[in-house]
Design a protein that fits this description.
heterodimer, A: 230 residues, alpha/beta, Spore Coat Polysaccharide Biosynthesis Protein SpsA, Chain A, seven-stranded mixed β-sheet, 7 strands, B: 111 residues, mainly alpha, 4 helices
């Protein structure tokens, strides 16, 4: 009889803002697989925090909305303080699959890597709009040029890291520019990083909450501003 | 003469401001200082401003000074934006401390 893998030292960090309609299902699916889950309720005005707690997650609540980058950093700090060996960031809107978490953690162990980045372009995308694909391809090209990293997917929220990897990351970009900042810091850390095929499923809900073209311009402004200030 | 003294005073304030900002935002501080020094030079030597303006195709020296002012204003606005970002970082740090201090442990398997 196969033994259940020990997932108790793997923490899932789930940043959430007004996700009351989906958070229960997302967290329950992760808890069922014996992962430890921390939901960072980023100043939601709905029932997100209570529902996440009901589903079995630890909940850290920002009293005000700061953005996904800030929520991720809070969750990573929380997980590290609770002795996480592996940390996986996971979106709250239901577009990630819990089954992919095991692949990310396995890739960290097998490759002795400190970062495992999910790639929808190595794996698969379900119902991805063409405009989103173009936008992501452009972002990937820009990141490859600016960081020198040979990666295929830059703005994928499904990422795994070891304790050492997570300790090397300090996100200062509160909003969506954190994805580029994350990769820049990985490149600067000189720690080993691998890509892992994952599946992203786009739904009407996740598309409505996802990034738009205007957000991309804001990301560029945020990244440029950071370079001008100490 | 009165206009020259007034403008010089304002440009002097900009130089002091740029100097104060240099340690936090070196590029902004340096650019604002250079623009203000250029402005100061042209205020006291308007014939040079006219000569340079004609050279670069602006037309009149007064217009050149106006453009310098616009550049300084934009740099000051950019610096204010960066200050707001800096304050946001402090708010974020404070919020994080509060949030982690009041975390709800949860009931997932090993929690």
């Amino acid at each position: 009889m196969p033994t259940e893998p020990d997932n108790s030292t793997t923490w899932l960090v789930v940043p959430a803002y007004n996700e009351a309609s989906v958070i229960l299902r997302v967290v329950a699916d992760l808890v069922r697989r014996s992962y430890r889950v921390v939901v960072v309720d980023d100043g939601s005005t709905d029932d997100t925090g209570r529902k996440a707690s009901t589903a079995g997650a630890a909940v850290v609540t920002h009293p005000i909305n700061l953005g996904q980058g800030a929520a991720l950093q809070t969750g990573i700090t929380f997980a590290l303080r609770h002795g996480a060996e592996f940390i996986v960031t996971f979106d709250a809107d239901g577009q990630h699959r819990a089954v992919d978490v095991a692949g990310l953690v396995a890739a960290l162990k097998v490759n002795k890597a400190d970062f495992a980045l999910g790639s929808r372009f190595l794996g698969s995308c379900i119902a991805m709009p063409k405009s989103r694909r173009l936008l992501l391809k452009a972002a990937t090209w820009l990141t490859r040029v600016s960081t020198g990293m040979d990666i295929t997917d830059t703005h994928n929220g499904l990422r795994g890291m070891t304790q050492r990897g997570a300790s090397a990351i300090t996100l200062r970009q509160n909003r969506m520019a954190h994805a580029s900042e994350f990769l820049t810091q990985i490149a600067g850390s000189e720690l080993r990083c691998v890509e892992v095929p994952v599946t992203i499923e786009y739904t009407r809900y996740s598309l409505a909450k996802g990034q738009k073209l205007g957000d991309s311009l804001r990301v560029l402004v945020d990244l440029s501003a950071e370079r001008l200030h100490r | 003469m009165i206009a020259q003294i007034g403008l010089s005073f304002m440009l002097g304030c900009i130089i002091a401001y740029a100097w104060a900002q240099y340690s936090k935002a070196p590029i902004i501080g340096l650019l604002a200082m250079l623009a203000a020094l250029a402005g100061l030079y042209f205020v006291w030597l308007p014939s040079h401003a006219t000569w340079l303006a004609e050279l670069v195709g602006i037309g009149r020296g007064v217009d050149l000074i106006l453009y310098v002012w616009v550049i300084i204003s934009l740099l000051v606005m950019l610096n204010l934006h960066l200050k707001l970002r800096s304050q946001m970082e402090m708010i974020t740090a404070l919020t994080r401390v509060l949030a982690l201090g009041n975390a709800c442990p949860g009931s997932s398997p090993a929690a």
